[in-house]
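Quick log. Single chain, no ligands specified.
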Amino acid sequence: MEIQTGIQIRNAVDSDIEFIIETIIRAETGNGNSISYCKLFNINEPEFRSVLKKILEEKICNFEFSLADFKVAVSNGTSVAAYGAWLEGKEGISSGILKISALKTFLGKENIAYYKQYAPVADEISIRRQPGTIQFESIYIVEEFRGKNIGKMLVQA
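-> predicted structure:
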């Protein structure tokens, strides 16, 4: 299939934060309607969106909630797809440590206490990431733009 023309790929910027939040939420829910972070921290989706916004605004790099590590596909000035990717452990700190630190910063103490009861199970099923490897996370393509090789363009970027 021919690569869609008129699509521009660029690094995410501050004005993309809402679209990146939508990307993370859509990637997290997949075909379902459950967000694991909401269950793990006993928060609802609007609260999780608020936490994500605060984390993305912090400009922390090298983990799955890093604005700087997202690429965005744009068509006629509108964001139509995005994905996040980073080099694991690039600064000597694992993405898992960065993620839990960021979440702890913006979640309430009661949410962290709630999480602690599930932490052993979450740790058992978490993705083991190898330092020095590229990690791809949270890809989302707006429905009417699917099947046009935009995902391939994003990954190649």
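The chain has a mean pLDDT of 90.
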